Amino acid sequence: MVLTSAHIPAFVALIAGVLILVMPRLLNFIVAIYLIFTGLVGLGVLRALHF
After folding, report:
1. 29: DSSP letter
2. Cα 45 to the chain's mean position, in Å?
3. Domain extent listing, the chain
4. pLDDT per position as a tens digit, 1-51
């Protein structure tokens, strides 16, 4: 499987979901980080960094 920038939000969402199940108090931080990360991917900022 080839990972592209389209796969990154799916992996981030999966990891965030597992962390929320394990530690529900992290919900606010995980949602904030997810939204920032998704915004950066959507703007193409991470693509410019070759990530």
Report:
1. H
2. 14
3. 20-51
4. 676 777 777 887 888 888 888 888 888 888 888 888 878 877 777 666 555
Q: How many CB atoms lie within 10 A of CB 12?
A: 16
pTM beyond 0.70, yes or no: no
Find the farthest-apart pair of alpha carbons in the chain and give their distance in angstroms, rounded.
34
In the prediction, which pLDDT does 14 show?
85
Q: What is the DSSP letter of 24?
A: G
CB atoms within 10 A of CB 36: 10
What residues contact 9, with CB distance under 8 A and at least 6 apart?
37, 38, 41
Helix 8-22 vs helix 27-43: crossing angle, to nearest 10: 180
